[in-house]
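In response to reviewer comment 3 from the previous cycle, which asked for concrete evidence that the modeling workflow produces usable outputs, we include below a single protein chain processed end to end. The sequence was submitted unchanged, and the resulting structure tokens are shown without manual editing.
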Amino acid sequence: MNDFASTPELVLLPAVDVADGKAVRLTQGEAGTETSYGDPVDAAADFARQGAQWIHLVDLDAAFGRGSNANVMRKVIKQVKGVQVELSGGIRDDRTLEAALESGASRINLGTAALENPEWAADVINRYGEAIAVGLDVRGTTLAARGWTRDGGDLWTVLERLEDAGCSRYVVTDVTKDGTLRGPNIELLREMTQRTPKPIVASGGVSSLDDIAALRDLVPLGVEGAIVGKALYAGQFTLAEALDVAGH
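The workflow returned the following structure tokens.
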């Protein structure tokens, strides 16, 4: 038994990002860089067939404050019964949070709201515990807010506040790498694991099976999972191959 086989598995979350009812990918999170990949329900069903245990589902129109794909989101979640869904995008108040929870998602990602409305975020974390993760979108160690167009403060200051609030999990995206296929920011993830005992889901830049292996090496430190998007759509590898490397 080699060391790699004994490393705990890395949870993979294939991403389905939805804009205007279509599955799309962005480059560095910028509106206007969408490449369309067809029907999100089909994309999610395909990932489920290949063995996904989780799907990371994002409503980009809600995230950018330009509309909502709530109906499509519900359809996707219904289609992949048995697969857990982490839902993200535009969840900023009790109304949008309750709608997200009622859609059947297993976990809700708070993004901008956790930065702009820390009291509300702390209350939600307190009420819903494990069902809430906070997305930290980072350039260097500066957080990016609202569709990554605004500066959201210092990562470590915000992390300390979220730790005090009892946040159960962080989804960490290096904005400069997202959608670029340039590899994940391993240094940032290592530093995060030193600053919080909570599980971390890595996002952004995964381009090869080697990247997945490198992230799996961080599992003992606290990186629980990785979101994989563009690499799957661009055909760099299949989800089935990725799951194999991740230890499923």
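Residues 9-244 form a domain with the TIM Barrel fold (CATH 3.20.20.70). We consider this sufficient to address the reviewer's concern, and the full set will be provided in the supplementary archive.
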